[in-house]
Design brief:
The protein is an all-alpha fold. Helix content is about 70%, strand content about 0%.
Length: about 625
């Protein structure tokens, strides 16, 4: 209740600053029942304040039931105001558990997670025992804050209160573990639950999906089908379909689709998930049928359908659908722009971005990253500088994601000093940021600086990834640092447990080949585990090129013979071998190779150049005079 001092202040504030009390008919007395009835019918904050004034005038504020109902209305987001509820709460001398629960729930739903946790601590300091309505919202707040230790401490209170087997509390505990990525804890709580409802199963499945444990999510869904009498609901279906999408498990996706048609029924969320699954599994015809059968087409399902067309390379169909969608959000605009960038139609991406500006749709960082990626791919510095200027003019924060895209754009356009300037100005640098600048420096021949920054990256405690090592090995290759390259290649596997990929082997073989250590390069190719043609062709191609540079005809013949046996249609193999013979004055062999190319119908692919003129990229083919310029 309200203490005497606080009551006087509360009355003064209410009578002087709140509206006039709600008028009651003369036939009814202001009783506890009538006040509660008024609160139940309350539709707005204005009405709520009038009822509150009436309560204070009649002295009914001392009633716990009325105070509880008043706080219910204040914390209701549809009619109340949480800030106002907090002010009333601060006047209450000894709030009961019910009011504490209301405030904790209100703060959590409002995103004020720290306040919710602090209120929970205050509740315990007041000697109150939390119940199964308190803990779920406390765990939700802790999960959103990512404070695992705090969550484990609160779980200790759960056990102390004897609520460790309460389904509602266990579900919220599982949700917290899923939020902070503690998958094993999530699984353990589920397994120890004596009674599980459909929400329990849903949280476990969605938790696995959230933590990218897609196979586990599918296994739990199968387990639910076998061991539980509970029927999968909308949440079960949507989460499992997300796992199917990630794993490209079209069979299970179709099975769930049948279940939806026969037993569960379609909802907007299920329709969105099915469209996304079929699109990403390459079954556009089924996705299109679901899309056109949906009575209400949300921007989410429209975006999935546009992205589906984009991923299958059907950009014109994607644009056609895009133009028909009446309401487009930034995600949809970005999906279409990204599609143009992905398929090297950069001019159309820029034109669409300009149209987006005309329609006053503000781009987000993902839109700008897509455009900057397009600039980097096409080498259009002028457009890249314009986008960078747009970011600065509109005071868009250059975080790690945007910063990485700008660094890559300037590096690929040859302005490595500008890349370094952007990198040094970043407040927060993640693995991608470091990798981008290291690869950029390597690409621009700045070997020493690239390796210096890699060493600095290791010292700061940021773990490099497989792409970082491509940059490092590439830098070693450009600098001819054989020992340094060997050392980094070894540390990649032994220190960072990163399995070498084609690109890593390619860099090391290129390094050895440039240094003239062809025998070691050939041995390395032979030692590559699980070798297949996709790996062998580019690696042997690099070695064959080195054979030409160093005039090693014997090895060149051996490597070329191996390559021709795999892919006889590749003109570069025949051309390199002919050049090797030519450098050794073996002209008869040159003639044989060229005759063989003619007999096999192998034609040399013409060289190509891209030239940026006033922001427009022009393509020129060797020997082709058809370009208008």
């Amino acid at each position: 209740m309200l203490s005497q001092t606080k009551l006087q202040l509360f009355k003064f504030a209410s009578l002087h600053f709140l509206p006039k009390p709600l008028h009651l008919s003369t036939s009814s007395r202001t009783t506890k029942i009538s006040c509660i009835s008024l609160l139940k019918k309350c539709k707005s904050m204005q009405q709520l304040k009038q009822i509150q004034t009436q309560i204070l005038i009649t002295g009914l504020h001392q009633s716990g039931d009325i105070l509880n109902k008043l706080m219910v209305c204040c914390t209701d987001p549809s009619i109340g105001n949480l800030h106002y509820a907090e002010r009333i709460f601060n006047y209450i001398d000894i709030p009961g558990l019910f009011i504490y629960n209301l405030m904790i729930k209100g703060f959590t739903k409002n995103g004020s997670f720290r306040k919710a946790v602090l209120l929970f601590r205050q509740l315990r300091e007041e000697g109150l025992s939390p119940d199964n309505f308190t803990y779920p919202f406390v765990f939700k707040a802790i999960g959103c804050l990512g404070e695992v230790r705090e969550g484990e401490m609160v779980y200790g209170f759960v056990v102390k209160n004897g609520l460790e087997f309460d389904t509602y509390v266990c579900n919220s505990l599982m949700d917290m573990y899923a939020e902070v990525g503690k998958v094993e804890n999530l699984k353990q709580v589920f397994e120890e639950m004596p009674k599980r409802d459909v929400v329990s199963w849903n949280i476990l499945i969605s938790g696995f999906v959230k933590c990218r444990r897609y196979e586990d999510a599918v296994d739990v869904f199968r387990l639910m089908q076998r061991q539980s009498s509970l029927m999968p609901d909308e949440a079960t279906v949507v989460s499992t379909l997300s796992a199917c999408t990630a794993l490209k498990m079209l069979g299970l996706g179709k099975e769930i689709h049948r279940y939806v048609c026969e037993k569960l029924g379609f909802t907007i969320k299920i329709g969105n998930a099915l469209i996304d699954m079929y699109c990403k599994c390459g079954h556009l015809s089924i996705a299109r049928q679901i899309f056109y059968d949906m009575p209400i087409k949300t921007v989410i399902c429209s975006t999935s359908m546009v992205s589906g067309y984009v991923n299958c390379g059907q950009l014109d169909k994607a644009r056609e659908l895009f133009e028909k969608i009446p309401v487009r959000d930034i995600v949809l605009w970005t999906a279409m722009i990204n599609g143009y960038v992905q398929f090297n139609r950069f001019d159309e991406a820029v034109a669409l971005f300009r149209e987006m500006q005309i329609k006053r749709v503000c781009p987000d960082r993902f839109t700008l990253v897509a455009l900057l990626t397009g600039c980097a791919q096409s080498g259009t510095l002028v457009q890249g500088q314009w986008i960078h200027g747009y970011i600065d003019e509109n005071k868009i924060t250059i975080d790690a994601v945007v910063g990485t895209a700008i660094i890559e754009m300037y590096a690929k356009c040859g302005f490595i000093e500008k890349s370094l300037e952007i990198f040094n100005g970043l407040q927060e640098k993640d693995t991608a940021s470091w990798t981008s600048i290291i690869c950029g420096l390597a690409m621009n021949g700045k070997t020493s600086k690239a390796l210096e920054l890699f060493s600095e990256m290791e010292q700061t405690g940021i773990k490099p990834d497989d792409i970082t090592f491509i940059g490092v090995l590439s830098a070693c290759s450009h600098g001819g640092l054989v020992e340094e390259g060997r050392k980094h290649f070894t540390s990649m596997t032994k220190v960072y447990q990163i399995e070498p990929k084609l690109e890593h082997y390619g860099c090391l073989i290129d390094l050895l080949a440039r240094a003239g250590q062809l025998d070691e390069a050939e041995e390395l190719i032979e030692k590559i585990p699980n070798v297949n043609n996709e790996v062998i062709i580019p690696l042997c191609g690099a070695l064959l090129s080195a054979c030409r540079t160093h005039g090693n005809v014997e090895m060149g013949e051996r490597v070329a013979k191996r390559l021709v046996g795999i892919d006889y249609g590749d003109s570069s193999v025949h051309s390199l071998l002919a050049n090797i013979y030519a450098s050794a004055d073996r002209w008869e062999d040159v003639t044989k190779v060229r005759r063989k190319m003619k007999n096999l119908g192998v034609k040399k692919v013409p060289g190509c150049s891209l030239v940026d003129v006033n922001g427009n990229v022009h393509e020129f083919l060797a020997g082709n005079a058809s370009h208008q310029k």
